[in-house]
């Protein structure tokens, strides 16, 4: 069973079962600090999981991100600084090194690796 | 939240079309989207979810403090996150979505608290010992098929779970 906020991509990939949540990318399972809403979304997803009996079915969950769908107008658009100008690449660079959320995380990972019982290096938890 | 009429709603964002338009505008060569021929692979549920153990795979770039973070360039590694993890130790890193809300509450892309609560309510028997996380935005379909997916499938089989929930971002 796949949750998804990109209905066309999941349909193209051919998920066996899907639950489509019509939210912006980055919210496949719900909103921040809204446990009741997210519980409801997951309960509906699990209900769809049990109900789908046709391969490739994607169920549309009945939630909306906002009272208006205007947010969709700007989703995945090229960045054009002013009308008529060439598109500018505003994507985050695809750095080949690990990208830590915080400096503390980088130190914690380094500490993990330096230990004798490094799970990462043992291939157990990497 | 659902107070407006359906007539004012737009259809789902056409991400495949818009991604093509965006990359065309940036001067990129043509690329091929993942497309599978129907019918989709199918395995019937053998028992109700209330009697099942559930695993999870998230592509949101989630790691636990102490683990190596993901890189942004075709990283086909994965992380095992114990399902009794302290949620405050979880992090998100990714180049292709706005991380603000996931870093505020990881449940947006890795619904760990949401699923632990549903286990407590009896909707699911239990969770796998570990959930798995990886990156999305891997441009090589071949590397995903040959490296990442077989490794994840092997772990899920070893975990003896009944069902897997995918949470792509």
Structure, briefly:
The complex is a heterodimer of chains A (126) and B (169). Chain A is α/β, with parallel strands linked by helices. Chain A has helices spanning 7-13, 35-51, 103-114, 119-122; strands spanning 2-4, 17-22, 57-64.
Key structural traits:
heterodimer; A: 126 residues; alpha/beta; 3-stranded parallel sheet; 13% strand; extended; B: 169 residues; 5-stranded mixed sheet; two-stranded antiparallel sheet; 25% helix
Strand content of chain A: 5-15%
Molecular shape of chain B: globular
Range of helix content of chain A: 25-40%
Strand order within the widest sheet of chain A? 1-2-3
The total count of helices of chain B amounts to 4
Rounded radius of gyration of chain B (Å): 18 Å
End-to-end gap of chain A: 25 Å
Description:
The complex is a heterodimer of chains A (126) and B (169). Chain A is α/β, with parallel strands linked by helices and 126 residues long. Chain A is 32% helix and 13% strand. Chain A is built from four helices and three strands. The two termini of chain A are 25 Å apart. The mean pLDDT of chain A is 90. In chain B, the strands form two sheets. In chain B, strands 1, 3, 5, 6 and 7 form a five-stranded mixed sheet that branches. Chain B is an alpha/beta fold. The interface between A and B is large, with 79 and 84 residues.
Can you lay out the helices and strands and say which pair or pack?
The complex is a heterodimer of chains A (126) and B (169).
Chain A lengths: L1 E3 L2 H7 L3 E6 L12 H17 L5 E8 L38 H12 L4 H4 L4
Chain B lengths: L14 H11 L27 E6 L3 E3 L13 E5 L7 E3 L7 H5 L7 H9 L5 E2 L2 E5 L6 H18 L4 E5 L2
Parallel strand pairs in B: 1-5, 1-6, 1-7
Antiparallel strand pairs in B: 2-4, 3-6
